[in-house]
Amino acid sequence: MSPPLITGLHINAVALGDSCRICAIWRVSRPAGPRPACEPVFALLLPRRGTEQDWAAETALRALGEQRLGDGPVCVDLATTVDGIAVDTLRPGLCEPGLLEASRAALGDGHQEWAELARGDPSAFHAAASDGYVLLRHAAVVTECDPAGPGSRVPVVHAREHRVLRAYGAALLAHAGAGS
User: Fold this and answer.
1) Residues with Cβ < 8 Å from 108, sequence gap 6 or more?
2) pLDDT by residue (tens digit) across 92-147?
3) 22 HSE (CA, 13 A, CB side)
4) How far apart are CA 103 and CA 11, in angstroms?
């Protein structure tokens, strides 16, 4: 029986001084309980603009300003609660490789590239940090559940949103069916 999933948002960002770049916003699902950092069972890359994304970005930026983790890459997990979106965890460092690669494929650049730009060319980072990202292709990362082991991560990246959403939805339904 599969454990129930908790859904939230996972944000990749890079901070440098007073500038902060939101690199990617993911809708994520994971089993309840302790979990490895940045390893959701299911993740769907969201467009940068939208009511939920704007609220998530503002919440993450506010938390980063309050926590003052310093310059560099950071991941912010937001939990969806009855009171709205709340910060669950803040973690300095780059995101896990599966999400990094899917971001790069869908956006053209991602968390790692923005961290390198901040280190290598701070003035270029400051000039471009506030620009919103643009989806070149849609992306999801799903974990193929294997009863014998932890399963493998599969990125789904395609120019057409409906193909990614179908694959993502089928994976969620397969997980739900395994739990019944």
Assistant:
1) 136
2) 999 988 889 999 999 999 899 999 999 999 999 999 998 889 889 888 888 765 54
3) 28
4) 11
